[in-house]
């Protein structure tokens, strides 16, 4: 009964309920849950990672940052390892946006290997999404700035998953951003 498949369904259902009223910033307002599902799918399908706790953390990675979910709630429902990985990839929303962005660059190298995999896949998904379409209200300059900032974060994540890093490198190369 506690198979990985059952656990993943429980996790994706929890994330879907938490993100139920959220939409992405693209002009079509895609349901937000497409993002965490896509991040988990990148980890398994492209990264070749089958660690169930990493996949669960990927599905849950934006629940605390963007919904009313608490770490205590994640720990009670999914255990301390999943809750810790989510905590490692969660920005402190009490800080200014500039400070949050700076801290991501600073903290990347100090994350656990499991959190680094989630961060790599999160950035890969978001950069591909930016190539697919521009979020409402974003200028071309803001898109380029996101690529430059993401490359600074990814620098601290290197040596974690070759396949994901190779795909990120190619996206940066296409934008003329040096990793
Ligand atoms: N590319 C893209 N991103 C979108 C879209 N809709 C929502 N987002 C989210 O927006 C965040 C990036 O936008 P920013 O302006 O840099 O950050 P902010 O949301 O904190 O203000 C990402 O959050 P995150 O996943 O927490 O990652 P992070 O970049 O903050 O680490 C991303 O998931 C979309 O349509 N396209
Ligand atoms: Mn995310």
From TrEMBL:
Q: Name one GO molecular function term.
A: guanosine-3',5'-bis(diphosphate) 3'-diphosphatase activity
Known catalysed reaction(s)? Answer: guanosine 3',5'-bis(diphosphate) + H2O = GDP + diphosphate + H(+)
Per the record, the domain of life is Eukaryota
Which Pfam families does the UniProt record give? Answer: HD_4 (PF13328)
Similarity comment: Belongs to the MESH1 family.
Function, as annotated, reads: ppGpp hydrolyzing enzyme involved in starvation response.
Protein name as annotated: Guanosine-3',5'-bis(diphosphate) 3'-pyrophosphohydrolase MESH1
Please tell me the species this chain comes from: Notothenia coriiceps
